[in-house]
Amino acid sequence: MNSMLEVKDLKTGFDIDGDFYHAVDGVSFSVKPRQIVGIVGESGCGKSVMSLSIMKLLPKGIGRIAGGEVVFQGKNIESLSENEMNSIRGKDISMIFQEPMTSLNPVFTIGFQLEEIMLNHMNISKKEVRERAITLLQSVGISRPEKIVDEYPHQLSGGMRQRVMIAIAIACQPKLLIADEPTTALDVTVQAQILELLKSIQEKNDMSIILITHDLGVVAEMCDEVIVMYAGKIVERTNVDNLFHNPQHPYTKLLMASIPRMDEVVEELATIKGIVPSLKNMPQVGCRFVDRCPSATAECRTVTPKLAEVESGHEVSCLLYESSYPKESVR
Ligand SMILES: Nc1ncnc2c1ncn2[C@@H]1O[C@H](COP(=O)(O)OP(=O)(O)OP(=O)(O)O)[C@@H](O)[C@H]1O
């Protein structure tokens, strides 16, 4: 199989006051088996809406997929019933979030929550499930798992809770893990431990990961491929090496200039002035980054750039590069 996941021209949005607004607008990318794909961009770029679309977990009654396809292991998720989707979620695709306290149920023990997911998805006895819960806790670096299994989420530290979330997410050995800002709420030492843990599980279980983050240090540490999103669209897609050494889109360049680097002495770190446009204020033509772009021209307000390859495996959506695109690579 070439791709574990294929997202094709995905359009997702929200019905607000009788109008429909796109939060993800024509996004295409794929994730190969065992690949770690990072999705970066400022708050409000559509990263979380995209992952909720993949999981078919958009808020009911307001959020919906309006176009395109999400194909997981060859199956278009749009064609799957809620029951079929329930059997995929947690088993084949799992998700971990930034703040485990909101995902863990405070009234049930850690063991109950781990066992529940395995009983739902695996053909396994009550005794086996208990043993496996303890082994899983051990495998995510929790000491005294026989004791922790009977404790409640509030009895654990933030780092321990995130380890528990990872144990729940990998309990059924999913093929794809979507990690949405998994370490943002943790201090740097614990963050490094959790990232190391995720990487070792990914290698051991042959899992693919979509890692959503605004932290480029995390991207450098973890990812193979990176997608840079801005205002619901992909503005650049490339491998990690290119992202750091050969960024092309003005937005990516500014993101790069806003992080401290060991190999360069700079007077002042760059900041990106302004904010991501809200859904209601999204420009309908032209480049969505135009108001904040140091390289913008008048044309950027009237011509919508297309994502195209500037070199093999490196796509950019910016008029600055459009004249150099090979015609057949534009999409
Ligand atoms: N339930 C919702 N109802 C209406 N608009 C929403 C809803 N959820 C998200 N949005 C809007 O969709 C856009 C994309 O939001 P999203 O949460 O995907 O951004 P993000 O890149 O994940 O940001 P963050 O890093 O802060 O999580 C934003 O403009 C946001 O306000």
From TrEMBL:
Alphabetically list the UniProt keywords. ATP-binding, Cell inner membrane, Cell membrane, Membrane, Nucleotide-binding, Translocase, Transport
InterPro entries cross-referenced by the UniProt entry: AAA+_ATPase, ABC_Ni/Peptide_Import, ABC_transporter-like_ATP-bd, ABC_transporter-like_CS, Oligopep_ABC_C, P-loop_NTPase
Would the keyword Cell membrane be found if you checked this record's keyword annotation?
yes
Q: Which GO terms describe its molecular function?
A: ATP binding
Q: Does the keyword Acyltransferase apply?
A: no
Instruction: Give one Pfam family.
Output: oligo_HPY
Q: How does this chain sit within the bilayer?
A: Peripheral membrane protein
Localization (cell): Cell membrane
According to the record, the segments passing through the membrane are none
The cross-references to SUPFAM superfamilies, in alphabetical order and at most eight, read: P-loop containing nucleoside triphosphate hydrolases
Residues of the ABC transporter domain: 5-256
Q: Which NCBIfam families match?
A: oligo_HPY (TIGR01727)
Q: Which family does it belong to?
A: Belongs to the ABC transporter superfamily.
Q: What name appears for this protein in its UniProt entry?
A: ABC transporter ATP-binding protein
Q: What is the lineage of its organism?
A: Bacteria, Bacillati, Bacillota, Bacilli, Bacillales
